[in-house]
Amino acid sequence: MNDYIDALGLVFQGYVLLAIAGGTLLGLIMGALPGLTAAMAIALLLPLTFGMPPVMGVGMLLGTLCGAIAGGSVSATLLNIPGTPSSVATTLDAFPMARSGQAGRALGIAIVASFLGGIFSAVVLSVLAPPIAEFALRFGAPEYFALSVFGLVIIASVSKNLAKGLAAGLIGLLLATVGSDPMVGSARFTYGNMSLLTGINLLPALIGLFAVSQVLADVVDYFKTEKADTSSTPVDKASPRWIEVIKHWKVVLTSSVIGTIVGAIPGAGGSIASFLSYDQAKKMSKTPEKFGKGHPEGIIASESSNNSLVGGSLIPMLTLGVPGEAATAVLMGGLMIQGIRPGPTLFTEQGAIIYGIFIAFFVANIFMMLFQWFGIRLFIKILQIPRKLLMAMILVFCVIGVYAVDSNIFNVYLMLAFGVLGFFLNKYGFGTAPVILGLILGPIAESNLRRALLVSGGDWSVFVSRPISLAFLLVALLFLAFSLWQNAKHKTTSA
Amino acid sequence: MQRPIPEATFHIVLIGLVGYFLMESYSIRGSAAGGSLSPAFFPKAICVFLIVLLLLSLVRVIIEGVSSKDADEVRESSFRVSVIAWVTVLALLILYAFLLEPLGYVVTTALLIFCMVSTLVLLNKQEQKASLKGVAGLAGFSILTSLAIFILFSKGFSIILPTLGIAGV
Question: Where is the DUF112 domain (chain A) (predicted)?
């Protein structure tokens, strides 16, 4: 309780609220722009949080994440292009509704559904995270190693091709070995470069993999796609449709539950949650034939679930230190740059900060709703920014952010290298999320593997003789088997 | 399967790089202590697993590429243009990083924005033809934007950015 009171004091300060509001607004803007992902938005804003106190910095990044997910509904409604992958299902009903002259109504419904979904998951996060963290306090070195394996396998198995997903995770693990060895301090793959002695800096890696690679991909797409007509959909008054959404409270609740659960499962992702909720809402509806033709229930289902996913995805990240998808992985990188290492000990050692993060998440959801309500015209204008200018601006921000770490130009080259690597990894279906997870989990996995073997005197059975460690390894194995089966099934059906 | 050759080449490059890391890992110093593992164990193990996975993936790429009826890549006219644009943008970025400290943030950033946008405009057939007014507008935009970002970050966020030392920029 004392931690909560301290946390309230940490959050309700002018500068902290301003940072959360700023992060939410920038997240909404980036989410509204097709092609800019939530992970990219967080990566770009990371450098701004360097000098900030932890709750302020993390609050800003949380606001960015909430805003980016919610902002995806703007382009989904007006252009039929989802701003983020999690708003793909929103296009199914929001765009037809907008085409019938009710764009404001569609956006108003999306605003309220996003807000309610976000608040629901914030409540679940606040209630469930502390007991999970308490349970995780029992973990020793074998459990942490097994947990790292579990996290990597799960995120890799989400890839369309399991071998490629696992390879991407291993690339991250390999890059994590660059620098001083965590146990005895031997230099590995540093080639005499002082900048590499402390390992690969997370920020250039994050910005390179998620922002530079995306811009490089956009450059290629720029010549393939026709210019989107952003002026063709007129927007009437976009005020929140509280009554219309609350009338469908069962859809809100079901979708929020689905979103939170899917979010809490590492690797599941936003588009899965919104499609599952959309499908469930259609099954529950008295008028399923109206889905896909501008039905409010379709928008409510998709938007409630994709916003509730955010809180759900924070549960494994904050309690176990395992981010479930790209945006949370980048957010975790942001926390680590702030000196906060997610995991169960965070709850006992820095209680005020963790509860501050919970409160900041609530506040971010409120700002998200207010900004969407009053700023909708601004987001529509932003959709009209020429893509070529946007790409150049993003690259400039990438460079400034990375250079700002320690005024070292080496970080800029590192970022460019990661950008090129990320571009090809995405192009050939490896994905970049497993790489970043490997980079984050690498030191945890290695040091706990070696520590566990040191304690057990080199006995490898220590990983299967302890129930929690065994459970993690078995679940990881099950996921591997399931992914292999799915891959084989997919191959048979496509043959 | 539309692009077996570039994808296979990417796999081979990755395998080569990982192989290099594997060779280098044999020169990592430090020994195992008390039943634990040596500092070289983890990188070596990862490299071996990685090479196996990449080889498996490469074999799959080759098999799918050979069996696919569409193995000949469809060379759209936009494909070549996008490759030229991609290479130019990357080259501009490397040049930008190279010149950032000697020329200062404002000058290099203005040049990057101007050159990058010009490249995209000149290569895109959908864009209107370049006019003197357009060039002047883009130059103005590039200078003003880089100045605004410089002031925002150096004054607003106290981030030290490289300068030419002339009039503070």
Answer: 17-437
If asked whether residues B59 and B85 sit together in one domain, one would say: no
| Domain contains B168 | no
- Separation of alpha carbons A71 and A64, rounded Å: 10
Nearest residue on chain A to B47, alpha-carbon basis: A174
Q: Which of A188, A216, A221, A454 to mutate to test the interface with B (most CBs of B within 10 A)?
A: A188
Tell me how many domains chain B contains: 2
B82 and B143 together in one domain? yes
Q: At what angle do helices A387-403 and B77-103 cross, to 10 degrees?
A: 40
Q: B57 and A186: CB-CB below 8 Å?
A: no
CB contact under 8 A, B159 and A456: no
Is residue B27 situated within a structural domain? yes
Contacts of A392 in chain B (CB under 8 A): 112-113, 116-117
Total structural domains within chain A: 1
CB contact under 8 A, B42 and A177: yes
The last residue of a domain, from among B19, B44, B67? B67
Which residue of chain B has the CA closest to A443? B42
Asked if residues A156 and A434 have their Cβ atoms less than 8 Å apart, the reply is: yes
CA distance A362 to A119: 6
pLDDT in tens, A174-192: 999 999 888 877 889 988 8
Q: Do A222 and B54 touch (CB under 8 A)?
A: no
A224–B149 CB contact, under 8 Å: no
Averaged pLDDT score across all residues of chain A: 86
Domain assignment of residue B42, yes or no: yes
Please judge whether A399 and B30 are an interchain contact, meaning their C-beta atoms are less than 8 angstroms apart: no
Of the residues B14, B45, B67, which one is the last residue of a structural domain?
Answer: B67
Q: Distance (Å, rounded) from C-alpha A16 to C-alpha A24? A: 12
Q: Quick: pLDDT tens for B105-116.
A: 999 999 999 999
Tell whether B38 and B94 lie within a shared domain: no
Q: What ipTM score was computed for the predicted complex, to two decimals?
A: 0.90
Is this model's pTM higher than 0.80 or not? yes
* pLDDT tens track for A411-462: 999 999 999 999 999 999 898 888 988 888 888 899 899 989 888 888 899 9
CA–CA separation, A107 vs A64, rounded Å?
A: 19
For chains A and B, count residue pairs whose Cβ atoms are closer than 8 Å. Answer: 170
Closest CB from B33, B37, B112 relative to A392: B112
Q: Which pLDDT belongs to residue B1?
A: 45
- Residues of chain A contacting residue B112, judged by C-beta atoms under 8 Å apart: 392, 395-396
